[in-house]
Protein 1
Amino acid sequence: MSGSRMKPRFAVFIPAFRHNPAYRNTMHFEGTKEMLEPTEIRREQGFILEPARKIPIVRDVDVLVCGGGPAGVGAALGAARTGAKTMLIERNAFLGGAATAVIMNTWNVPISHMTGVAREITLKLAERSGAVIAGPTVPFDPEALKELSVDLLKQAGVEILNYTWVVDPIMEGRRIRGAVIQNKSGRQAILARAVVDATGDADIAAAAGAEYVMGREKDHKMRPVSVLFRMGGVDVRRAVEYCRSCPAENFTADRNFHILDLDKGLVRMSGFFDIADKARAAGELPEEIHYIRFEGVDVKRGIVTVNNSRVYGVDGTNAWDITRADIEARLQNRKLYAVIKKYIPGFENAFVVDSSANIGVRETRRARGSQLLSEEDILANRTYPDSVAKVWRHHAAGRDWHSPDGSEGSAQNLVYRTLQTDLNWFEMPWAIFVPNNVEGLAVAGRVLSVTHEADMWTRGQYCCLVTGQVAGTAAALAALRNSSPRALDVSTLQRALVAQGVDIGEARKNLVAEVA
Ligand SMILES: Cc1cc2nc3c(=O)[nH]c(=O)nc-3n(C[C@H](O)[C@H](O)[C@H](O)COP(=O)(O)OP(=O)(O)OC[C@H]3O[C@@H](n4cnc5c(N)ncnc54)[C@H](O)[C@@H]3O)c2cc1C
């Protein structure tokens, strides 16, 4: 079938939903696809030419949120609560992103320093016995978060569509007008007045032509990827007693990473450097594993999350790479499991509860906006007239413990062993949410315009929830004004965020002054 274009072999007219309301609710269409042209196979040139085809428009919304991780959930809540007709598309069967699909269930911020929907979610999780809010970090139950996310989004009137990939932006010149989605029902179009890219990988922003950077600026290397698993049947009390009986240097020095507060139900164990070194020397652990870390600890039920497999040199936007890495990480986990059971008291009867549904990708694309947040900005506690969030995080200057260069936690790489984090704050200017080159788009979560080093501060799930709320609220305000996020009057956005309980930092004083 190579060579010149052929005439259509068949064409079946499928009406768009606005002409046939039945499609609107069911999104179900029958029979043969409407193909306007046949596929052209150009084997010798190494590609095929896809035929043009009509795609039904199944929704027309104010705000389309792409991705249902912490940023997407925050964005959908921010948009819907601002009064926008909001839809959220998620490729998985459930919401939560890395918090649920990777079972990465610890937020590194105390409840006292949380703000906006992130604070609301944490408090509601605690009410449902789904989080422990007694200390510097907040372990939570991923299943409780899945349920709560749906409850909150439904209450806010967000339409959720799971099991669906957002595959292409719909563009009118430089302006994004929605997205093409793909799922069991086929390929469909969603029109939107504003779009939030919360895919973690800037899938939509990149496809729309937004400027972005992949990985670390100097060499485009990315942080390691991991598959996590949870162990049940753990005698946490016994494990804690063992930790207490060991020399301090066997564990990370950081009081936020190594917490043995049984009475508060707050335990996070990190280090076991001696065991890891011994097991590695005996060939029982892979070369990449230099320490063992249990977090998201559910003291009562004896469940811990093991966050230790590390695969380097992986591009998280390349399906071949992540498949290879996923398989490798799971092989690492089998070894970890055996070593943990063999050497760590309290784990003798432990078993695997589950493992990450998705591989945990820490870093891929970051958008570039008119401003770039750097670690220097963060360390200087810079304030901004267009600040839209003041965020707190346990971290320390230059302490990149997930370096793309490897040897995380090893005796040669002391960052993780000697780490001492403090609770620091930083402000986030609105300009880092708006990527260059595309109109009608805001980004949130991992996708913000920040440097590789600053990403160590902004990538935490708590921060992603907050930045999601900012982007969603902004997208809603823009959509409702028939404007673009870039053109938004920042003080309008700031007021809306303050009304939603978000701490915007110093800029709030200007708002108060203006009102007075
Ligand atoms: C292994 C690991 C350990 C971590 N440890 C911690 C920690 O201890 N504490 C902490 O706070 N943070 C931690 N992080 C960081 C944090 O989890 C992420 O940075 C954060 O989840 C990013 O949020 P996000 O919403 O931007 O992206 P994600 O959480 O990645 O969510 C993106 C969502 O979009 C969906 N999606 C992606 N592409 C598409 C598409 N094209 N169409 C439809 N849906 C799509 C995904 O399925 C996912 O649900 C860790 C991350 C990893 C990977």
Protein 2
Amino acid sequence: MSINKYQKQSIKKYDKIATNYDQTLEGKATAKSKVKILEMVEPADGDKVLDVGCGNGSLIGAVKKKANIEAYGVDVSSGMIEECRERFKEITFQIAVCENLPFEDEELDIITMNCVLHHLKDPQAFYREAHRVLKPNGTLLVGELWYPAVVKQFVDWIILPLLRAGDNKLFSHGKLKRMATDNGFSLGRIYKKGSVQIVEAIKEL
Ligand SMILES: C[S@@+](CC[C@H](N)C(=O)[O-])C[C@H]1O[C@@H](n2cnc3c(N)ncnc32)[C@H](O)[C@@H]1O
């Protein structure tokens, strides 16, 4: 697989913090939206559910407890995937990128993604892949950090390039919704409170 600049930086960063991710500032900052996605996701017995950019597996591990599902996780960081395999033996994890998912067309019922979209060079490529691998009427739940426009500009143009930690650009709430509707999804439930935004997208029939 060919690796772009953002993926390369992410691998370097997340391999390093994989074993103590939950205790890092970032682990704590992304926890709120993870809890909200977990609250919103509604798997049924027999569903195939994938968490994309699964980190240390905590979200898919918790989703697995909600129903008798076939659970999957993918992440670009081999360190994170090793951590997942240690923690959750009954879940299938693979090293893979969001932009090229190792699943067949219309194979999955639900996809979750927490705080990963802003890492992607081409977020549209992820939406196209999610649309391809989801069954008709399948659900995609995307959580992202939200900041007011001025703060977002500052973070996008000054902070993230300085950090060189695999982050591309944050998403406004309008843009996060448009990502779904521009790629063949209709909007489901929407959540936005403080720095947390979640957009549920349903693959149209
Ligand atoms: C902020 S962490 C979030 C981890 C997890 N989703 C959570 O909420 O705890 C971002 C994760 O996305 C992964 N990642 C970044 N770019 C990726 C890509 N292009 N494909 C797959 N995973 C990616 C990183 O390795 C990292 O585990």
